[in-house]
Amino acid sequence: MIVAIASGKGGTGKTTVATSLALSLAASQPAPLFLDCDVEAPNAHLFLHPEFEEQRQVGLLVPEVDESICTFCGKCAEICQYHAIAVLGRKTLVFPQLCHGCGSCSNLCPEKAIRETPIRMGVIERGTAPSGIRFARGVLDVGQPMAVPIIRELKAWVHPEPGQHMFIDCSPGASCPVVAAIRGADYLLLVTEPTPFGLHDLRLAAHIAGELDLPAGVIINRDKGSYPDLETFCRSRRLPILLRIPFERAIAEGIARGKPLVDIQRDYRQYFKTAFDRIQDTE
Amino acid sequence: MKIILTVVKPEFESPIDSRFGRGAYFLVVEIESGQWETHPNPGVNASGGAGIQAAQFVTSQHAEAALSGGFGPNAFEALKAAGVSMYLYGDCRTAAEAIERFKAGTLERVEAPQRGQGREGRRGLK
């Protein structure tokens, strides 16, 4: 089963939940596969300590214009919805930072004046953690603006074996990188906190589950009693609350020292297993 | 000589719009004849590359100079490549005032892009 862990709001505890969920099931055969798809700031390795065995570079094909052939007809600029290529009088300029590598410009150039050359965007890596968990992640190079190509490459490179559970740690937000990370999952696990900000972004993330027609459930982190708006929202959207992690100093201190939640309070192994049983029952 | 200004309203007497790529309207003025026309900015709601789009509009109008409150890195590069000179509004408040100061040669000419606009300041849908 493939479970994607998302939240909308950042800092709600996606990685805390994802790593502890995977560790709770580390003894299953085959051991789970963990994908850190938060390629702008991957941090699950801090809790799972994998050793990377393989690495690949990820590139994007961006256009290069041969101005000795270019007639400055402007077709490339017209088709590019990202405005990554512009024809200005007798000059054709490329803005690689805006390019999505779709290839429309080079395909449509009537003079065949556009060649595509790769630029490096980041790397994908895979290996194994001491717990036996198989681990893979993408890392976007500093200064590169686009996460989606890295996430796509990572997911094309790493697949679960038959019977192997896969957990995908998504980035915060509710835009393209999150959708790219969730796509293909069987279940969307939403981590939230009982604050207006948490709820606002939970709505957005839950909306993605609706758009992708995915079953979803909620884990409330830093729970400190009642926040009726959140409970009402979950009930109205039929989102089961699978677990509540209380707002406790001991947990915060443990996480800050790089300890997974299931090692800070060992009871959580069972709690996460129970939550996972409920997730599997949804299927 | 044709020049282009970014303005808030489609009028000659409009207040200036200090944003180049995201300005509401373009005011195109023929300096010698005083003829003018306005065009809505097609890139005002673009998810990205608004400055580049605006620069393409300027060159499509065969304007020789662009007047605005600032030019981001992409717009600067595009206008420079097209040979369009760029000027800053400074403390001008209306388009008419900026045109007078342009004619008098007292507007500051831009030699480097301004920070905080264009791609580097943006973090949204990708």
Alpha-beta content class of chain B: alpha/beta
Question: Which chain pair has the greatest contact?
Answer: A-B, 20 and 21 residues
Strand line-up across the major sheet of chain A: 3-6-7-2-8-1-9-10-11
| Average of pLDDT of chain B | 89
Q: In which order are the strands of the major sheet of chain B placed?
A: 3-2-1-4-5-6
Instruction: Please compute the radius of gyration of chain B using only Cα atoms.
Output: 13 Å
Largest sheet, strands/sense/barrel of chain B = 6 strands, mixed
Strand content of chain A: 25-35%
This entry's quaternary arrangement is heterodimer
The amount of helix of chain A comes to 25-40%
Total beta strand runs of chain B: 6
Low-confidence spans of chain B: 116-126
Radius of gyration of chain A: 22 Å
Number of strands of chain A: 11
**Beta-sheet strand percentage of chain B?**
15-25%
> What is the averaged pLDDT score of chain A?
95
Low-confidence segments of chain A: none
Overall body shape of chain B: globular
Q: Care to describe what's here?
A:
The complex is a heterodimer of chains A (about 280) and B (about 130). By secondary structure, chain A is an alpha/beta fold. Chain A has eleven helices and eleven strands. Chain A has helices at about 15-25, 45-50, 75-80, 105-110, 150-155, 175-180, 195-210, 230-235, 250-255, 260-265, 265-280, and strands at about 1-5, 35, 50-65, 85, 90-95, 115-130, 135-140, 165-170, 185-190, 215-225, 240-245. In chain A, the strands form two sheets. Chain A has a nine-stranded mixed beta sheet with strand order 3-6-7-2-8-1-9-10-11, sandwiched between helices. In chain A, strands 4-5 form a two-stranded antiparallel ribbon. In chain A, strand 10, helix 8 and strand 11 form a beta-alpha-beta unit. Chain A is elongated, with a radius of gyration of 22 Å. Chain A starts with a strand and ends with a helix. Chain B is built from three helices and six strands, in the order E-E-E-H-E-H-E-H-E. Chain B has helices at about 50-60, 75-80, 95-105, and strands spanning about 1-5, 25-30, 35-40, 65-70, 85-90, 110. Chain B has a six-stranded mixed beta sheet, with helices on both faces. In chain B, strand 2 and strand 3 (about 35-40) form a beta hairpin. The interface of A and B includes residues 93 and 147 of A.
